[in-house]
Write a structure and sequence with these properties.
CATH topology: Cytochrome Bc1 Complex, Chain D, domain 2
Number of domains: 1
Helix content: 40-55%
Strand content: under 5%
Mean pLDDT: 87
Number of helices: 11
CATH superfamily: Cytochrome c-like domain
Structural class: mainly alpha
Distance between the termini: 88 Å
CATH class: Mainly Alpha
Radius of gyration: 24 Å
CATH architecture: Orthogonal Bundle
Number of strands: 0
Order of helices and strands: HHHHHHHHHHH
């Protein structure tokens, strides 16, 4: 009886294995959406349960100008920006594919993020607003809006928006420019501007920007008055 039961169990097991072996493998679609799911690990707005993902230090990608995204991927690949994970992901990707990735995310709707309370004094916030809207002519610091647009949502095809970014992220990018771990094609206008800003200036700008609500239409502007106040190597139209 025991032997008969064992034979039945083994027959069932072999039958299951045979069915498994002959079952069609799951087909994963070879699409750009599928390939770029890995980006959502850091750059997604929320996870599967609706919880915020890395809101402090990882920017959302949807709706950013395609040229800007492409240049950042190039900068990671070619060593102008230092972040090992990003460098590993793009190290062997050709220019045309990086352009395709940039266009993919640019075609998505921008993420509308809420304004953040900075806890800074009114005087510091006013200093931040002054630098953003007027700059500081005495120190040759141009206004942020002169390049990033009057609504600070960026300009097609190469200039990113500044509103809707977490304060910690903005501070981290200024720190990266100051420490030369973030660079761009020469002339590196943001590195030059960062060198002219004090740490108090950086805190004022990042605090004021983070406290601003995003406009009803958060898409980048189509154009801006040129020439820009400084030559920027990452914006070919300004070279």
């Amino acid at each position: 009886m025991r032997s008969h039961s064992l034979r039945l169990s083994l027959a069932s097991l072999f039958g299951l294995l045979a069915c498994t072996a002959t079952a069609a493998p799951q087909t994963v679609p070879d699409t750009l959406d599928q390939r770029l799911l890995a980006c959502a690990t850091c750059h997604a707005r929320v996870d599967a349960r609706g919880n915020p993902v890395n809101d402090s230090f990882y920017p959302r990608l949807g709706g950013k100008p395609a040229g800007y995204l492409y240049h950042q991927l190039i900068n990671f690949r070619d060593g102008r920006r230092q972040y090992p994970v990003m460098t590993y992901l793009v190290d062997h990707l050709p220019d045309d594919y990086l352009k395709e990735i940039g266009r993919h995310f640019a075609a998505q709707p921008p993420t509308v993020l809420p304004a953040q309370s900075s806890g800074l004094s009114a005087a510091v916030l006013q200093r931040g607003r002054q630098l953003v809207h007027d700059g500081d002519a005495a120190r040759k610091i141009p206004a942020c809006i002169a390049c990033h647009g009057a609504r600070l949502t960026g300009v097609q095809p190469n200039i990113p928006g500044l509103v809707g970014l977490p304060r910690d992220y903005v501070n981290a990018q200024f720190g990266a420019w100051r420490n030369k771990v973030r660079r761009a094609h020469a002339p590196d206008c943001m590195a030059e501007i960062t060198a002219r800003l004090s740490l108090d200036d950086v805190a004022a700008v990042s605090g004021w920007l983070a406290a601003q609500p995003m406009p009803a239409d958060p898409r980048p502007a189509e154009s801006i008055t040129r020439p820009l106040p400084m030559a920027c190597g990452s914006d070919p139209e300004a070279r």
